[in-house]
Amino acid sequence: GGAGAVELGKAVMSACKTGSDFKLLYDAKKDSIKTKISKIVTEVYGGGSVTYSDKAEGIIAKYEADPSIRILPICMSKTQYSLTDDPKKLGAPKGFNINVKDIYVSAGAGFLVASLGDITFIPGLPIKPAYYKIDLDFSHDPPRIVGLS
To answer: What proportion of the chain, given as a percentage, has pLDDT over 90?
Structure first.
């Protein structure tokens, strides 16, 4: 509750007064796309190396040539079960290899998405969701659901 959070609040306020040696993991504007990905894999996930599919290599070459794309930060799309690209390697193994299968621009969010392993993407929602077409027809007894196909 609120009263129980007072001590936590005081601790947070105290921590905010102390200095910090925080630094970003990479320089999005200066580091190459592969350098950004490598730093995430080795320094955050504990991996040992990164490999790239032929498809990803080709896309990265195109993106590196475009100054407005190459400066974007990286978002890693991977299994939720592991820090690797393999859902069977549970937890936080060390020294593994990650394979980048694909990479694409998420322009609205403002980053590059590196796709690792077998990822199933959920399609985006349409501008007008299908539930707007679903209704009840009360001219029948009992009423019928309409708009489902």
So the answer is: 56
Mean pLDDT of 84-96: 88
pTM for the model stands at 0.72
* pLDDT over 70 percentage in the chain: 95
What are the DSSP calls for 86-123, one per residue? -TTS-B--SS-EEEEEEEEEETTTTEEEEEESS-PPPP
Count other Cβ atoms within 10 Å, centred on residue 71. 14
pLDDT of residue 63 exceeding 90, the answer is yes
Number of Cβ within 10 Å of residue 32's Cβ equals 13
List phi, psi (to 5°) of 91: 80, -140
Sign of CA dihedral 67, 68, 73, 79: negative
The secondary structure element, H or E, covering residue 76 is strand 74-77
Interior angle at CA 96, CA 59 and CA 76, nearest 5: 40
CA distance 28 to 23: 12
- What span, in angstroms and rounded, lies between the C-alpha atoms of 112 and 69? 8
